[in-house]
Amino acid sequence: MVVAYKNIFLLEQLKHAFKAGKLHHANLILSGIGGEGLPLAIELSKLLLCDKETGCGSCSGCTRVSKLEHPDLNLTFPIVSGGSSGTSDDYISDFRKQLIENPFLDPSTWQREIASKNQQLQIPVKEIQRIQRNLSLTAAEGKNRVLLIWMPESIKTGASNKLLKLIEEPLDNTYIILVSYNKKKLLSTILSRCAPWHCKPLGVDDFLSYFPNETQETKAILSMLFAPNLGAAIAANNNLNNNQTAVFANWMRTCYKGSPIEITAVVNELASLSKEGLKNLVSTSLHLLEKGFYHNVQGTNTSSTELGVVNLKKLSSAVIPSGSYLIARALDSCLRDIERNIHVKTSLSVTSYQLNRAFKGL
Q1: Which of 2, 69, 213, 267 could be 348's S-S partner, Cβ–Cβ 3.0 to 4.6 Å?
Q2: Spelled out in words, what is the top-level CATH class assigned to the domain 244-360?
Q3: Would you report the helix, strand and coil content of the chain in percent, each value rounded to 5?
């Protein structure tokens, strides 16, 4: 069982509802990215498929759910185009491996595992059709069946209504568990027909407790860069040299100097990143600059400010109060441009010059 940090009470509520015969057939677990949504969904699946109906964790049913191999556990997750069947069957081995290694798996980590440069994650119509076929069959063990859908917000518009039909016309002994990071992208009709369960976000203490054997320096880096996204931190901890701090530091130094030649060079370098990689970089930049601002105004503990190529004390001197709003606005706008496929180099160039003015308080 994955330790539940902030949401053990939520797991207990789910267990109580099941034991009382009041668990809804369609449950929507709302979580922050890299939070406890997926681990809780797996624990609920164990409960529903447990041989003893207790979620014991040791029986054959629970063991097979832990390995994501139970015949009555149907997994649906976002994929990229190019597979032979066009469904999650093409990536099920990769998904099992990733989720077992990282129970808090986040979308960016998954996208990097299976996608090339600019492929986007989605749940296609064929996937929902595959689900319908699978659920039309009798349960392999004659008991409950579970459909676990990770990131239903990535379902293509044409497939959403097919999912809605599954929810509206529940099959006997079939439970649907949806784990979503953005309920605003779900159909309102789907939202209204699911029982909502809200996960509390992980705090810094919960976050750090996952890495008890790491050095204080490593914990500080992981916390600074990723908290409360534990999934991204687990993935990054395998090789901290591959995180984006060096790229971030170089970009910020270039923006601070404001040399057009250097800005053009760094923009060309950044534009070569994958779409997801670039989105991660912009999000990380916003996160770190925010940390710099709060260090500046709140006096953050200096023991956690040395992050290799990023020195938070030095960074905070560039994030002056008069420029903090422009920094946030510039990076937010850049992120939206990337998501909408607006010309990347143009957006990055504009953002870089806006950051230069913000650092100078102009």
Answers
A1: 267
A2: mainly alpha
A3: 60, 10, 30
